[in-house]
TrEMBL record:
SUPFAM superfamilies: ARM repeat (SSF48371). Belongs to the HEATR5 family. This is HEATR5B. Gene3D superfamilies: Leucine-rich Repeat Variant. One of its GO terms (biological process) is intracellular protein localization. GO terms for cellular component: cytosol; endocytic vesicle; Golgi apparatus; membrane. The lineage of its organism: Eukaryota, Metazoa, Chordata, Craniata, Vertebrata. It comes from the Eukaryota. Residues 84-97 have a biased composition (Acidic residues).
Amino acid sequence: VCSTWIGSGVVSDLNDLRRVHNLLVSSLDKVQAGKGSSSQLYRESATTMEKLAVLKAWAEVYVVAMNIKKEAESKPKRAVKNTDDDDDDDSTIDELPPDSLITLVQPELPILSRLWLAALKDYALLTLPAEFASQLPPDGGAFYTPETIDTARLHYRNSWAPILHAVALWLNSTGFTCSESAEAAAISALQKRSIPVNLSQASGATPSAKSLAEINKDRMHLILGVSIQFLCSPRPEEPVEHVTACLQALHTLLDSPYARIHIAEDQLIGVELLSVLHRLLLTWNPPSVQLLVTGVVQQIVRAAQDYLQEKRNTLNEDDMEKESCPVLGEGGDSGGLIPGKSLVFATMELLMFILVRHMPHLSTKMSDSPSHIATKTRLSEESARLVAAAVTILSDLPSLCSPAEDSVPVPDEVSMLTAIALFLWSAGSEIIGVQSLQNGCIYRFKNALNSCDPWVQAKCYQLLLSVFQHSNRALSTPYIHSLAPLVVEKLKAVERNRPGSSAELLAVQEGIKVLETLVALGEEQNRVQLLALLVPTLISYLLDENSFASASTASKDLHEFALQNLMHIGPLYPHAFKTVMGAAPELKVRLETAVRASQASKAKVATRQPAPAVHSAPTIKLKTSFF
C-alpha cells in the first residue's frame, strides 16, 4: 500500500511522505531479523511472503524515486524566484522537491541492495529445473526454509521483477564500484536497529573474500541469467508488468560502461540475449513490449560498437600496415556471418521480424499468403516508432563488420531499403523530420547507390523514385538535396564505363527515370537548369556510327534507350530543350547524327523486307461448304 501510494504521484506533503517512509523502514527492520527469529509470529510461508512484499515495495519506491530524479535532471533548471513571487505562485504549493524521495531512500540502499541480491539469488535457484535440485542450499535460502520451498516459489514469482529492476538501477548508479566490504561498512550503523541475516554466504559455507571484479561478474551473471531464463518462455498468464520490468532492467543495466564491456567481450552472451528477445516477440504483441525490446537491442549494438571502436583505437598506424594485423569486425577476412555466433546476423533477424510484422508486404511469403489482404493503410504512431527504431539500428550494423564484410552487399540490403521507403511513405511528419533518423536513411541510400551490385543500384533507384515523388515536400526535399547530386554523378560516369550486362543497363535506365522525374517535378523557371543535367547525360550515351557496330548488346541498347528518351523530351519541353541544345552546338550535332543514323538504319531494314504476297482467288471452287 505504501509503495502504491508513493508511486501514484499524488504525494504533495513532505510530512506525509516521511510518515509513510517510516512505515517502510520499520518493515525493513523485520526483514533483517532473519529466519527463526524469536519475534516471528507467523508460519514460515507467511513470513516469506511478508518479507518479499516489503522488498518488492522498497524496489518499487526506489524505481519511482530514480525516475523522478532522472526527469528532474533532464528538465531545464528553473530560475530562482524571490519570496514574494513564491507566495503568489500557487502552482508550487503542492509540489515536492524532486530529490525528496530519493533522499529518503538513499540511506537504506546499502542494506536494501544486499537484500535484493539475496532475493534474486533465491529466485534464480528456485527456478532451476528439477534435475538441478541438488544445487539448492540444504538449509534453504535467505527468506525461505526447505519445508516451505513449494509455496515460496509462488511468492518469489510475484516479487522478483521490480527487485530486478531496482538492482539494475542501483548497479548503474554506483557504476559497479560498490564492493561487499564497502557495503558492510555502510550497514554497520543500520545494524543497530536489528540483527541482520547473513546474506553473503549460504548456510554452512565458509566465508571467502572476493575481489570487486569477481563480485561484479557474479552480479552480471545473476541478472542476465534471471532475465534470459524468464524471457525464454514467459508464461501466458504472466503480468505484462513483469515483462516490461525485466526489459527495463536490461536497458538500465546496459547503460553502465562495465555492463557494456562485459557483454561485448563475450559476444555469445549478446547473441543469446538477442535470440531470446526474438523469441519473446513471437508470443508478445503489445507495442510497448516491442519498443522496449528495440531499446535493449540498440543497447547491445552500441555496446559492441564502443568495444570495437576501442580495439581499433588501440591499433596504431604501424600495426594497421602489417600483413599480420588482425581484421577487426564481424566477417573477418572472408566477410561471412555465421548464424548462431554473429551478433550482426542475430540483430538483422530480429529487426526484420519487426519490420515484416508491421509491413507484411516486405515478405513475399507474407504477401503471397491467402490470408494476407493487401491494403494501403497508414502506420499507427506506435508502429511508425517501431519501424523508425528498427531502421535506425540497422543503419548502425555496417560499423560492426570487417572491411571484407562491409564491401559485400548483405542479403537484406534491398529489403532494408524497401522498409525505409515504406516507412517514409507512411510515417508522420513529426517522425520523418527527426534529423538523426533522416541522416541514417540517407546514409543507407548512399551506400546502395555506391554498391558494386547493379541489381542493388537498380532497386535503390526505384525506391528513391517513390521517395522523390512523395506529395509531402517536407519529406522529399531533404532527400532530393542530399541524393540527387550523387545520382547525377553516377549517371554521368556511365559514359566512361558503359554497361556490359543487362543488370548494369537496368541500373542506368532506372537512374535516368529518377532524373527525368526530377525534371518533371521542378518548377518551370528551373526547367532549363534541370534539362541541362539530363540532356547532356543522355547524349553522352549515344554511339557514333563507327563504334556502334562493334559495341556490346547492352551498350547498343543503352544507345537506343537514350535516343528514344531524347526524342520524347524534346516535344515535352520544347522551349527549354531548344535553349539547352542552342547553348551547346556539339550536343546538337551529336544528336542529329544519331537521329539520321537511326532513320537510315530503319529505312535500310524496310527495303530488305520482301513485298507482301498477293493471294489470287482459286480457280476451282468447292460446291460443298464445310462451314
